[in-house]
Structures are given as structure tokens and as C-alpha cells.
């Protein structure tokens, strides 16, 4: 991996969204401040670890669908986070070895991992780049050489668990500008926390904000608005267990006594994918 290298100071006393997520996934790249904030989140929403794993599972499902069924070979991952196997580029390169992937994040621990990866984690045919850019500076991303190098083919743009960390109208601006810049036939994939499925998510947002981190769970209508000028892939903006088709053991069947509403409340995020006409 390579890319822009602005210095970002590591403050271990200030919780980090990326490191908290790493903690929920069972990672080791977190500090006492992160774990203390994570404990507050978990108190408000005890199923957060499962939700984090399900978010990761959707990344794998969506990436396999795009690389395998849609033949996409250009990927832009916004808000990459600390590497957790399987990483997006690993999923892609198993299917499309010649693909290009650009990761974007500005967390110092994420950057350290990107530098440790070096250029060895791609394939002989493919390429993995990393850009150290704050997503609020989206114009800088669009002007970068790494981004421009993706534009010879349709691009899969992914925003997995990142847009709910920005206040309005910032995330809509990010998505609109990126999707305006990529070619026709590109795709947008999103996961986004919502209080619609579990009111506890409103309290989770308050916990993050009390720890000096923006967090704004949104409604189904607000999340759907990200896709307003795109062609939604069926089944639309839904819970991840029914995307692209329902899980093999639906709610209420043998081995799963929980109702659909109970299952959805444990995850509490919507996902969706859409194509640029």
C-alpha cells in the first residue's frame, strides 16, 4: 500500500472510532480510553459486538457480489478502519486478481497498519493503495492520482459503518461528490446505524458524542436518501440478514426461536447497494 502521508498525531487518551470498532471485533489495536468508551456503548447496546461482526459480514457479501456477479475491478473503500481478515482487497483479489483497490482513512493506527502492509499485500496483477485523507476533505480525494487511476472502469464505492459518524449534511455531500465523479455503471454500498430497529441506538449516538466523537444514527428514509439518484439493487435498503436473499434459517424456524424484529434489533443497521445509471 502507498499513498498520501500527512502526519496525524496519535492521542491514546482520546477514544477513536476505528479502535473502538477494532475492540468490538476482538482486535488488539486499542487503548484503555477506547475500551472505556466501548464499555459505555455496550451498556447502551449489549449486542454491539454482533452488530460489528454482521457489518463485516455484509462487507464480504457485497464485495463478493460486486467482484463476482458484476465483474467490478475498481474499489474505493471510505473509512477503512483497522485491518481485520478478511480485508476487502483480499476478498476482491480472490475473485478478480487484477483489481485496483484504494483505501481511505486518517486514523493514525489505521495508517500504521497501512504502512506495515507495504506493497506486498496486493497481487502480481492487482494494486492496493492507501490514502491518508479526512473524508470531510472529499475534494482532495477526488483530485488525487490514486482516485483518478480508478476511473478507467466502473468503481465500487463502499461506506461500511462510516457515514453515521458525520453530522448533516456532510455525509450526503461526501456521497454525492464521489458518485458524481465515478463512471456510469459504478456502485455504492452502505451500512448505516439506525434507531428504527432499536431505540438504544439513539443512546449509542449520545455516548459517542459525550466522548468527543460525532455519531448520528439515521432513519430508513434518511439512509435511503443516499441512493436517491441511483438504481437500487434488490431488495433495497434492508437489514443485512435478508441481503441479497434471506438467510437460510429465517426467524421463527427450527433452531431460531427469535422473531424477525428481535433479530433486527440485535443488528440495528440498514444496508443497501445501488448502481449509477
Automatic annotation (TrEMBL):
Q: Which InterPro entries match?
A: SAM-dependent_MTases_sf (IPR029063), SAM_dep_MeTrfase_SAV2177_type (IPR006764)
Pfam families in alphabetical order = Methyltransf_19 (PF04672)
Q: State the name under which the record lists this protein.
A: S-adenosyl methyltransferase
Amino acid at each position: 500500500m502507498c499513498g498520501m502521508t500527512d502526519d496525524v498525531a496519535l492521542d491514546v487518551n482520546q477514544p477513536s472510532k476505528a479502535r473502538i470498532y477494532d475492540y468490538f471485533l476482538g482486535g488488539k489495536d486499542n487503548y484503555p480510553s477506547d475500551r472505556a468508551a466501548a464499555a459505555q456503548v455496550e451498556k447502551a447496546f449489549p449486542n454491539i459486538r454482533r452488530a460489528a461482526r454482521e457489518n463485516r459480514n455484509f462487507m464480504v457479501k457485497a464485495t463478493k457480489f460486486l467482484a463476482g456477479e458484476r465483474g467490478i475491478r475498481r474499489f474505493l473503500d471510505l473509512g477503512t478502519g483497522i485491518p481485520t481478515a478478511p480485508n476487502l482487497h483480499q476478498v476482491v483479489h480472490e475473485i478478480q486478481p487484477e483489481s485496483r483497490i484504494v483505501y481511505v482513512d486518517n486514523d493514525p493506527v489505521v495508517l500504521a497498519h497501512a504502512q506495515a502492509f507495504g506493497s506486498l499485500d496486493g497481487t502480481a496483477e492487482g494494486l492496493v493503495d492507501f490514502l491518508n485523507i479526512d473524508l470531510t476533505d472529499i475534494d482532495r480525494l477526488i483530485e488525487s492520482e490514486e482516485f483518478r487511476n480508478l476511473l478507467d472502469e466502473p468503481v465500487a464505492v463502499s461506506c461500511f459503518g462510516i457515514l453515521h459518524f458525520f453530522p448533516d449534511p456532510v455525509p450526503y455531500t461526501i456521497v454525492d461528490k464521489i458518485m458524481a465523479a465515478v463512471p456510469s455503471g459504478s456502485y455504492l454500498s452502505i451500512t448505516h446505524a439506525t434507531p428504527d430497529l432499536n431505540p438504544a441506538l439513539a443512546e449509542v449516538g449520545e455516548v459517542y458524542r459525550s466522548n468527543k466523537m460525532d455519531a448520528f444514527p439515521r432513519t430508513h428514509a434518511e439512509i435511503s436518501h443516499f441512493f436517491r439518484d441511483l438504481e437500487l439493487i434488490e431488495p433495497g435498503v434492508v437489514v443485512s440478514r435478508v441481503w441479497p436473499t434471506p438467510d437460510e434459517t429465517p426467524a421463527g424456524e427450527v433452531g431460531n426461536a427469535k422473531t424477525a424484529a428481535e433479530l433486527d434489533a440485535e443488528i440495528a443497521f440498514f444496508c443497501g447497494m445501488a448502481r449509477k445509471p
